[in-house]
Amino acid sequence: MIFEQFFEPDTSTFTYLLACEKSRQAVLIDPVECDVEKYIAALQQRGLTLVYTLETHVHADHVTAADTLRKRLGSKSVVHRDAGALCGDLLVTDGIHLQVGAVDIEVRYTPGHTNGCVSYFTGNRIFTGDALLIDGCGRTDFQQGNAGQLYDSIHHRIFSLPDDTLVYPGHDYNGHTVSTVGQEKRGNKRLGGGKSRAEFIEIMANLKLAYPKHIDVALPANQACGNLAVKQSA
Amino acid sequence: MIFEQFFEPDTSTFTYLLACEKSRQAVLIDPVECDVEKYIAALQQRGLTLVYTLETHVHADHVTAADTLRKRLGSKSVVHRDAGALCGDLLVTDGIHLQVGAVDIEVRYTPGHTNGCVSYFTGNRIFTGDALLIDGCGRTDFQQGNAGQLYDSIHHRIFSLPDDTLVYPGHDYNGHTVSTVGQEKRGNKRLGGGKSRAEFIEIMANLKLAYPKHIDVALPANQACGNLAVKQSA
């Protein structure tokens, strides 16, 4: 499988390119609107056709490139059925498998940061969006966030994977790029070392986070798959 | 590809089994609740795993087996995003390809009988649901039906296929089992011989059809993927 990690520094967002070496079909996980040219160049350079953009959730901190990429390259936008983005071309739920040439991608429903969050699992890699971050996790104080639900999602759908499974998050603010299930189970400051559900809920309730600076623009735009007209009128 | 056609005589409904010979993965197109045991026996006999039930639309004349099959066999329910059946596990739109082992199934959006109708195209076969029937077509007087839209769907997404493409409809009331695109383009009494859009709309406006006898039970049940609790309370 072809694999590349992109980083957008303004919002500290990771985007991932996965592709089948044989069929040359590709997907982008969580592409960011401002980096469209970078993705298109990477696809062209490798001789790949973009078939899907996969959203881990409806983001509050950046605008997705899904709509721009579907207009320019004909890719289809994939998002969870309950994420509130009926603009998606393919709405998925837990346990759906997406086949991209020889690459099989399993959808794992991991709500809690938002009620429409999924992780994408393929081979020995899981792309966790804002559910599980490296030594952290997504906040749970907006978009139907729920700390107890996030704890259950991470435990049942991510920590249940083998310890050596690679964890690729949606963001990192501290220079990390990858972790493993084992490392997060042991050391994650909010979840690691067997912290209980009650302890986690208590931690999440006391984060005292600022109002997200991009949410009022990003949310309506992303509910329209990143449609720029919606973004501009927001 | 493994292929079998089932017929449910009470509502004259066709159900189709398609499966990959190698992976032994199967789909059922438009399975009917009352024939669940028949499908399960056929799957077992052939050693197949049911991965998807594919709805061509939300039916008004029979209850889908989608929910029963997903509970009993773990299959996923597939339906068009705009069909009003958010119970579906995978909501699709025009141009999406479903991969079932080596079998590729293309979703073709063919609204007009209802606003959520699709046809499924694989190899040289198209499964047209109630959009195009043999020597007929679906009615357009309920569920956001629209004769002009149905004419466009059939012309752009079905009649645009090669003439020898096999047409497998959702129903037949006259003993037919299969047709071809060429046969329907030439001879279909409502559409054939190059009938204009205006002629077709005129024909559809004057059918004087009775109120569908099962619609008040079938519609709410099918909007819940055939969930029996919903059916019983309807």
- The SS-based structural class of chain A is alpha/beta
What's the main sheet of chain A like?
A: 6 strands, mixed
How is the quaternary structure best described? homodimer
Query: The CATH topology of chain A is what?
Result: Metallo-beta-lactamase, Chain A
Helix proportion range of chain A: 25-40%
CATH superfamily of chain A: Ribonuclease Z/Hydroxyacylglutathione hydrolase-like
Instruction: Output the radius of gyration of chain A.
Output: 17 Å
User: In which order are the strands of the major sheet of chain A placed?
Assistant: 1-2-3-4-5-6
Following the backbone from N to C, one meets helices and strands of chain A in this order, namely EEEHEHEEEEEEEEHEEHHHH
N-end to C-end Cα span of chain A: 39 Å
Work out the count of structural domains of chain A: 1
Low-pLDDT residue spans of chain A: none
Quickly give the CATH architecture of chain A.
4-Layer Sandwich
**With helices defined by DSSP (H or I, 4 residues minimum), what is the helix count of chain A?**
7
- Most extensive interface: A-B, 12 and 12 residues
Percentage of residues in DSSP E strands of chain A: 25-35%
The averaged pLDDT of chain A comes out at 95
The count of DSSP E runs of length 2 or more, i.e. the number of strands of chain A, is 14
- Tell the overall outline of chain A: globular
Q: According to CATH, what is the class of chain A?
A: Alpha Beta
